[in-house]
Amino acid sequence: MSLGSAGHVLLGLLVSLTAPALAQAPGERRSGYHDMSPSLQAMQDDEIANPGMLWVLDGEAMWNRKQGAAAKSCADCHGAVSTMAGVAARYPAFSGANPRPVDLAQRINLCRTDNQKADAYPYESKELLSLTAVVTRQSKDLPIAPPADPRLAPFVAAGADLFTQRQGQLNLSCAQCHEDNAGRKLAAATIPQAHPIGYPIYRLEWQSLGSLQRRLRNCLIGMRAEPYAYGADEYVALELYLASRARGMPIEAPGVRP
Amino acid sequence: MANALIRMPKTAKRGEVIEIKTLIQHPMETGYRAGMNGTLIPRNIIEDFVCTYNGVEVCRMKLSSAIAANPFISFFTTATETGVLFFRWTGDEGFKVEETVSISVA
A52-137 belongs to which CATH class? Predict the structure, then answer.
């Protein structure tokens, strides 16, 4: 063995002793799916075992149901739900004359109030989650593709600021866990990189499907910060920033997570 | 109306062991959790699952409070003859879902 290669081995040993091993290489974008156990991965992959598909089924039935004073179904305007392929990959986005970007669930509610003349569904209601799930499912395996809309830039920037801003009694920012320590452990759980590609997700802890806003509230509560109200602009800004950060990653919805 | 998903082969050879997978939407409320006002949320679970194959019981399961929401049940049976598999989930608050799936055995 030459002296040079022995030196390399020694250097490698030193690095592995001093730097705690990360489950993922720095700079590599990675879905939380790959940090789950094989049985949970199988649960997500198998349509009959993935409980999120129950919401997708409900959403499919709702898609064709006439609603509101206008007595219109989603299908009356949009046609088959399969025409929604790629839509979820673009949201949050601007919609119509709305002065602020909206996420997919808010966009669905805009359709309800403007076109179906019906009441908006409450956040995290079974109905809103089901419609969001069936629309997002049509984009499965498609890459996250935020629109190239210059009006979005300030909102993405606001989301980036929120992501790196320390908050709560623990004085933590999102980035401290999901960038600086992604791949390491928080108690028994592997900290994911926080890519919004599986939402709405079926979380075993929730025993239910839930939105990205619900997940963000969870994190805020964990940081001992006061969560924003559902539908707050802060969530949409964070969702926008996360989407721009995950651009190109394939959608897995409905994901399954522990 | 609860959703139930069933996956099993539509056709099978006589004597072949087939896997049947089922998933049903149900909250499986344990009866041990307290609600917002501190009072217990009443138990609401599926108590019994049964599958019959041309009238012959091939699987029965008693479910308890410890089972997670949206129970996934999978089991095996032997394909004996062409016919119908009947599935029934029953539980608290008059919960009852019935499904039938036919199979042809050659």
Answer: mainly alpha
Give the distance, in angstroms, between the CA of residue A108 and the centroid of all CA atoms in the same chain: 17
> Are A85 and A112 within 8 A, CB to CB?
no
> Which 3 state secondary structure label does DSSP give A75?
helix
Closest Cβ opposite residue B69 in set A46, A48, A208: A208
Contact A20, A184 (CB under 8 A): yes
Superfamily for the A143-257 domain:
Cytochrome c-like domain (1.10.760.10)
pLDDT tens digits, residue range B8-43?
Answer: 999 999 999 999 999 999 999 999 999 888 999 999
Any idea how long chain A is?
258
Give catalytic status of residue A219 as yes or no.
yes
ipTM above 0.90, yes or no: no
Domain extent for B88 = 4-31+40-105
Give the total number of structural domains in chain B: 1
Interface test with B, best of A45, A46, A48 (most B CBs within 10 A): A48
Report how far residue A174's alpha carbon sits from residue B46's, in angstroms, rounded to the nearest whole number.
Answer: 40
CATH number at residue B62: 2.60.40.10
Parse chain A into domains and list their residue ranges: 52-137, 143-257
To the nearest 10 degrees (0 to 180), the angle between helices A153-164 and A233-245 is: 90
Cβ partners under 8 Å of residue A175, min gap 6: A163, A164
* Chain B residues with at least one Cβ partner in A under 8 Å: 3, 5-7, 21-23, 25, 27-28, 68-70, 72
